[in-house]
């Protein structure tokens, strides 16, 4: 009897212990699962660094202002307190002594000689795939997200446009989203970046800077680099406006090319002191307004500072600068976008000028601002048209085109063929459908015919209505 009671008690104890084990195991699993779902759980950040978002708010938050704010807050978390691995070297940023002129970094001398030696030691690296001196296309956008998600959307589209142009013309591409220098923000951020790239890429002969609000619209045009022998800076501008009238809009720095050489490093050194944020930039802006015709009163900008250097500083800046006006190294969007259909009717890619602009620059547009004003909506509309105008030139090779310049939707413009390279024996009979004759034309040829007919009809209507 006692033996049976003892066995019963033992079984109960074992059962209880097993239950506790299962409970503890489940608890541990639950903790691990919850820990894995907490934001920052695997990155060393505490839960207090994040705003907990209810599950119901995670669905379709992009359509609500609250959702956008949450997204921005999550994206802009300051991770400066994140632990650094022991093997990572961290260099403290140098603090600018405001009693001294601002500098982008240590003075570089004999850079041309250094590049010659480096390229001799690394033969072939300074040539592009087409055998020409290597060129790097450089652009960028702010590190954080736009207040308006549409701004990020068009940054992506414009980046795709740069990727296409660089691929078509054998250019290196560098797209920056990092803060290189805290004092040099806004439109001044390009200067420290250009200097870093020059010194880090001695194999690159030319750097082509393009603002984030500019887009290539002539995908066939190639820069005539032989034309710029003996020049180190190629910038869009007009000789009479700049050198005769001293207008601050005599040139534009939204798209320019600068040679990787000692002259350019010296120019950046002379250019940079106008740009540090704060009182220095404000005072420089007042001076530039006093010196340049029709310049409004605002803090110093890189474009006005370059105009000042070319007009009033060392003559060597002017002598080595080429003001390009023969084609649209940058074309003001309001002068260009409303004429795309007429250009398609009367012209074709490859000119780069008013017949087919190389670059359309959306100066004055603010795609990142949260408030969507009529001006911003018009910018978005025309940015879409400009992108599709350029994208059609890319898609044509693959037999597609956008249904309209204002539409992101595409349509097939050519049928697939069993002879894509056109190498079949000419004696072999080829299938041909008279109803599909226009499919043998390229997109540009068909658009040319269609728009030409439309323009002729409009002209005929005008003549009929004239007294």
UniProtKB/TrEMBL annotation:
InterPro entries named in the record: Glyco_trans_34, Nucleotide-diphossugar_trans
> What is its subcellular localisation?
Golgi apparatus membrane
Q: What is its main location?
A: Golgi
Q: Cite a single GO MF annotation.
A: glycosyltransferase activity
Q: Tell me the Gene3D superfamilies matching this sequence.
A: Spore Coat Polysaccharide Biosynthesis Protein SpsA, Chain A (3.90.550.10)
The protein's topology relative to the membrane is: Single-pass type II membrane protein
Which keywords does UniProt give here?
A: Glycoprotein, Glycosyltransferase, Golgi apparatus, Membrane, Signal-anchor, Transferase, Transmembrane, Transmembrane helix
Instruction: Please provide, in alphabetical order, the Gene Ontology terms of the cellular component aspect for this entry.
Output: Golgi membrane
- Name the protein family: Belongs to the glycosyltransferase 34 family.
Q: What is this protein called?
A: Uncharacterized protein
**Naturally occurring in which organism (per UniProt):** Ceratodon purpureus (Fire moss)
The organism that produces this protein has a lineage beginning with: Eukaryota, Viridiplantae, Streptophyta, Embryophyta, Bryophyta
């Amino acid at each position: 009897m006692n033996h049976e009671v003892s066995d019963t008690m033992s079984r109960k104890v074992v059962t209880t212990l097993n239950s506790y084990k299962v409970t503890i195991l489940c608890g541990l699993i639950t903790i691990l699962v919850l820990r894995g779902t907490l934001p920052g759980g695997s990155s060393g950040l505490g839960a207090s660094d994040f705003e907990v978002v209810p599950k119901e708010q995670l669905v379709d938050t992009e359509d609500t202002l609250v959702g956008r704010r949450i997204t921005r807050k999550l994206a802009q978390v300051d991770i400066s307190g994140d632990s650094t691995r022991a093997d990572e070297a961290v260099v403290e940023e140098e603090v600018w002594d405001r009693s001294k002129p601002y500098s982008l970094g240590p003075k570089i001398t004999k850079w041309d000689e250094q590049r010659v030696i480096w390229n001799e030691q690394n033969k072939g690296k300074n040539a592009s795939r087409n055998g020409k001196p290597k060129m790097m296309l450089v652009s960028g956008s702010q590190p954080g997200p736009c207040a308006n998600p549409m701004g990020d959307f068009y940054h992506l589209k414009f980046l795709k446009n740069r990727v296409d142009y660089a691929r078509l013309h054998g250019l290196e591409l560098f797209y920056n989203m990092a803060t290189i220098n805290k004092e040099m923000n806004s439109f001044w951020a390009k200067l420290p970046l250009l200097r870093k790239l020059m010194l880090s890429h001695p194999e690159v002969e030319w750097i082509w800077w393009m603002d984030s609000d500019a887009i290539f619209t002539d995908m066939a045009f190639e820069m005539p680099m032989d034309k710029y022998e003996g020049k180190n800076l190629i910038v869009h501008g007009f000789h009479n406006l700049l050198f005769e009238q001293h207008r601050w809009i005599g040139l534009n720095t939204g798209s320019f090319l600068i040679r990787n050489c000692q002259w350019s490093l010296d120019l950046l050194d002379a250019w940079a002191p106008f740009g540090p944020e704060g009182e220095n930039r404000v005072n420089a802006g007042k001076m530039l307004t006093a010196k340049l015709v029709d310049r409004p009163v605002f803090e110093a900008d890189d474009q006005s500072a370059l105009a000042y250097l070319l007009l009033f500083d060392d003559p060597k800046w002017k002598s080595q600068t080429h003001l390009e006006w023969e084609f649209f190294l940058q074309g003001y969007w309001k002068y260009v976008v409303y004429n795309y259909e007429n250009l398609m009717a009367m012209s074709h890619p490859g000119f780069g000028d008013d017949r087919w602009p190389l670059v359309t620059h959306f100066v004055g547009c603010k795609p990142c601002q949260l408030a969507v004003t009529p001006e911003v909506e018009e910018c978005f509309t025309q940015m879409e048209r400009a992108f599709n105008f350029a994208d059609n030139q890319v898609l044509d090779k693959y037999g597609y085109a956008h249904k309209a310049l204002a539409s992101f939707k595409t349509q097939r413009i050519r049928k697939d063929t069993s002879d894509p390279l056109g190498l079949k024996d000419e004696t072999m009979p080829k299938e041909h459908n008279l109803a599909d004759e226009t499919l043998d034309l390229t997109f540009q040829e068909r658009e040319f015919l269609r728009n030409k007919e439309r323009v002729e009809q409009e002209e005929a209507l005008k003549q009929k209505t004239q007294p």
